[in-house]
Write a structure and sequence with these properties.
Number of strands: 2
GO cellular component, one term: endosome
Transmembrane segments: 880-904
Protein name: BRO1 domain-containing protein
Coiled coil: 557-584
Largest sheet: 2 strands, antiparallel
Helix content: 55-70%
Low-confidence stretches: 722-876
Region (Disordered): 717-778
């Protein structure tokens, strides 16, 4: 600590976490990144992971460069706050931060809190920003103007950081925070930093030899700021948080600067020849300085405090010999003026002057959601318009098939059994794979459906298992199982699973409809899939036609059929244009968000869609009107054509078959498109479900880690006397197991009477339990006795050989109350606040005496351990843990016995 005894806030500590996998998974699942963007984002995630390791897990120098690293990481966390949601359900990354002021103990680590939330990480990192600012400011030598300005600025920034946290921490941390992050603690830290900033300003003013009138105002305000800090530190909620050194320094500086301000006012009184007021103020300054000296470290404020006594001595001497003025009553003197030059500087973004967002290519979630809504609106419009085109095309094909066009026109100009139009349709069907291709596509659908269903089932199973585990532990521990319940966290995930189940159900129904349509058109598709000879043989021959191929009706119908074909080609191109339109609405949304911070997505989307798709929609309307006009003409000319034909029974059958084949051709093309669409749908759905499964897997892993952390904390609380493992809610552990029966050996608070020296070393101990029948006699062995609580051991005087004591063998049964950890040994001196002090023995050298210790806490430790291990179904772990307990006890007792024997020998 420097000569000014500035206080520096300790930094919170954490451990490394892997940000790469969960953040990459989240970005892949939420954002549609291209290959180039994906490489850029992956590199950014890796850099963020390295930056966190430097800022949070590696030792930091008390230098501006270290502060730049921490502030840059904080700025990056703020930058991705609206881009990458880190939460228990979205991107479960468990951040574990330890309390900055908790020193831990011999058996227990520092208090910590683990939460899967990015806002908790931001709060902890912002705390470290303020703490590191205080370290850098406190380490300034304050020899130059620049150093004093730096110290004052950093203390003010630190005060602003803690003030900002005080106002926002409860909204950032969804659970009860560690003591260092409680609002009262942060208010006290902010007050201390503000007082130290004002003190740094005073030091500069004092060294610049400013007028006493200015020094009075500055120093009086320093005293007030320290007094405010002292009050904040003495609040009941945080009184036990501070080290004695902190309390003493703040108290000492409160009185010290009150004394200094009185000294400077006395200097003004001396200039004005107000000797009575001067002496009164100097008397008060001397009193305060003497009290401050009891609290402050040596050398702190020594120059000013020493000057007070010198000024008082000189002023008293002058008054006694020259002025003889009456000393004024201090309580009647006017209050000193104040000047608050230091203030808590607000936290600005970015904190780092040269900050650059690593994820600049990733848009905020609000914009991304608006883009998704825009894409949904766009897809809906495209589906509606292309659906209208397909619907009217099918209607047109149906009308032509019912009229047997254009096959009837081929019969009018040719006597061939197989019309040219049917031959072309058959060629298209066979080129596309025919009925075998449809059957192949149908055979793939069930496997694709089942694969996606299995992924959803496995995802749901993981959530169910996690919920059952949490519910079991909540029933066992009741209110002590304080973490958020699974139902509160898994709602969005279950909703997402339900959404995809609904999508799969809809797809399954669509598959059935496609299958029904296939069966209805199967005969026609089978005929079209045959070779030309077989197809020709399947069609009834035609009779001599009565219509000439050069008639006006035939010519007009052929022209209309050409127009129909042109419409189909135009519509195929129009559909392609609808699907190929590329529009970037991100810039429009980002601009709107920057201007008003509110996105009217609906208005922006509709305007953009109208701008892009308006001309295409007009083309759809024109195509439909053209079709209506052509179909009306087809009906008119077909009626004239049919009236010119001569009908017969054979002609009617042939016409039916040709109509069936024409309809089969159209059905084949439609079915093939539907099946390919279905296959693509299932294949596209699989990676989406895999990402959902990965998200749930990460969530389950984070919950498992959180569970293990909470179990360890509960074990520590139980061992340290923090309460039983059961909850008030009446869980399985609320009633501890029955205590073991008392030992057969007599135990008393009185030490045993030493036996005479003539007693044999293996003589039975009075009151001890008799040996079991058949137990072999144990020869004496000169070894240190190992004591077990509950077993009577007789004191053996110095010089007598020690008898061999029977050692209870380890039994892998957790019902046995093994004495574990401090408290199992009667004379173990335990630190205050962790275990109750041991009872005092009347004879400190009666080594054979062992006072039974309460086993309740130990039973709770074993019970919690059993439940923890039972939950993991690891019997081997139980056995191993029991062995460790037993070895720990034996080792501790051997060390204790050796030490007592050594002390006895020294005593004798």
């Amino acid at each position: 600590m420097s000569q000014y005894s500035f206080l520096a806030v300790p930094l919170k500590s954490t451990h490394d976490v892997d940000l790469v996998k969960p953040l990459t998974t989240y970005i892949d699942s939420v954002y549609n990144t291209t290959d180039d963007n994906r490489a850029e984002v992956t590199e950014a995630v890796q850099e963020l992971n390295k930056l966190r390791s430097k800022a949070c897990c590696q030792p930091l120098d008390k230098h501006q460069s270290a502060l730049d690293i921490v502030t840059r990481y904080y700025d990056q966390l703020v930058a991705i706050e609206n881009k990458i949601i880190i939460s228990a359900t979205q991107t479960p990354v468990v951040f574990k931060w330890k309390d900055a002021f908790d020193k831990g103990s011999l058996f227990f680590s520092k208090a910590s809190l683990s939460i899967s939330d990015g806002s908790f990480e931001r709060a902890a990192v912002l705390f470290n920003c303020g703490a590191l600012m205080s370290h850098i400011a406190a380490s300034q030598p304050l020899l130059t103007d620049e150093e004093m300005k730096t110290a004052a600025k950093l203390f003010q920034q630190s005060a602003g950081v803690f003030a900002r946290l005080k106002d926002t921490v409860l909204g950032m941390v969804q659970q009860d925070p560690t003591p260092d992050l409680m609002p009262d603690s942060l208010a006290a830290l902010s007050a201390i930093m503000l007082a130290q900033a004002q003190e740094a300003i005073y030091i500069k003013a004092y060294k610049d030899k400013m007028k006493p009138s200015a020094l009075v105002k500055i120093s009086a305000q320093v005293g007030d700021f320290y007094q405010d800090a002292q009050k904040a530190m003495n609040r009941d909620a945080v009184k036990g948080l501070w080290e004695k050194e902190w309390v003493h320094i703040v108290s000492g500086k409160t009185m010290g600067f009150q004394a200094i301000s009185q000294m400077h006012q006395a200097e003004i009184n001396a200039e004005n020849r107000e000797m009575g007021e001067q002496l009164s103020r100097l008397q008060e300054a001397v009193r305060l300085s003497e009290m401050a000296a009891k609290y402050l470290p040596p050398g702190c404020l020594s120059e000013q405090l020493n000057a007070i006594s010198k000024l008082y001595t000189a002023a008293k001497k002058d008054n006694d010999f020259i002025y003889h003025e009456r000393i004024a009553d201090f309580r009647s003197l006017p209050a000193l003026p104040r000047a608050a030059l230091a203030k808590a500087l607000p936290v600005t973004y970015p904190m780092s002057p040269r900050f650059k967002d690593m994820f600049s290519s990733v848009v905020p979630v609000q914009v991304h959601n608006a883009m998704q809504s825009y894409e949904s609106r766009k897809a809906e419009l495209v589906n509606i318009e292309t659906g209208r085109l397909r619907e009217h095309t099918q209607l047109m094909n149906g009308i032509l098939a019912s009229l047997n066009l254009p096959a009837a026109l081929d019969d009018a100009s040719s006597m061939d059994t197989l019309p040219e139009s049917i031959k072309q349709k058959s060629g298209k069907v066979k080129q596309a794979g025919g009925i075998n291709e449809l059957q192949r596509l149908f055979s793939e659908l069930p496997g694709l459906y089942k694969r996606n269903e299995e992924i959803l089932d496995e995802t749901n199973r993981m959530l169910t298992e996690e919920k059952e585990s949490d519910d079991n532990l909540r029933r066992q521990f009741g209110t002590k199982w304080s973490r958020m319940s699974s139902e509160q966290l898994t709602g969005p995930l279950l909703q997402e699973i339900g959404k995809y189940r609904g999508i799969l159900h809809t797809a399954s129904n669509a598959d059935k409809m496609v299958r029904e349509k296939f069966e209805a058109n199967r005969p026609a598709i089978e005929m079209l899939s045959k070779n030309e000879v077989e197809l020709r043989g399947s069609i009834p021959g035609q009779t001599q036609h009565a219509v000439e191929g050069s008639s006006e009706a035939v010519s007009k119908l052929r022209a209309l059929m050409n127009q129909v074909q042109e419409i189909k080609v135009q519509r195929e191109k129009l559909e392609k244009d609808f699907k190929d339109v590329r529009s970037d609405i991100a810039n429009d949304l980002l601009k709107a968000l920057a201007e008003s911070q509110i996105l009217n997505e609906e208005q922006i989307s509709k305007e953009k869609i109208q701008q892009i798709y308006g001309p295409l929609k007009d083309q759809v309307e024109a195509s439909i009107k053209q079709q209506d006009h052509i179909m009306a003409e087809v009906q008119t000319w077909n009626n004239r054509f049919t009236s010119e034909k001569s009908g017969s029974g054979t002609g009617a059958e042939r016409e039916r078959v040709l109509k069936m084949l024409a309809a089969g051709h159209d059905a084949f093309l439609e079915l093939k498109g539907n099946l390919e669409e279905g296959t693509k749908f299932y294949n596209d759905l699989t990676p989406i479900l895999v990402r959902l499964q990965q998200k749930v897997s990460d969530f389950s892993f984070a919950r498992q880690t959180e569970k293990e952390d909470l179990m360890r904390q509960m074990q520590q609380n139980i061992v340290s006397g923090g309460g039983s493992g059961g909850g008030s809610g009446g869980g399985a552990v609320s009633t501890p197991p029955p205590r073991p029966p008392p030992p057969a050996a007599r135990t008393s608070v009185e030490p045993p009477i030493p036996p005479p020296r003539t007693q044999q070393s293996l003589q039975a101990v009075p009151g001890a339990p008799p040996s079991a029948p058949g137990m072999p006699q144990i020869s004496p062995a000169p070894q240190v006795p190992v004591m077990h609580p509950g077993y009577y051991q007789q004191h053996v005087p110095y010089g007598q050989p020690q008898p061999f004591l029977y050692q209870p063998q380890y039994q892998p049964n957790f019902a046995n109350p093994y004495p574990t950890f401090p408290g199992a040994f009667p004379n173990y001196q335990q630190p205050y606040g962790h275990f109750p002090p041991p009872p005092q023995q009347q004879n400190p050298f009666a080594t054979g005496y062992s006072t039974p210790q309460p086993q309740q806490q130990h039973y709770e430790v074993i019970l919690v351990t059993q439940m923890f291990l039972k939950d993991d179904e690891s019997w081997k772990a139980q056995t191993f843990l029991g062995l460790i307990f037993d070895l720990f006890v034996m080792l501790g007792e051997m060390i204790y016995s050796s030490f007592v024997g050594f002390m006895l020998r020294r005593f004798h």
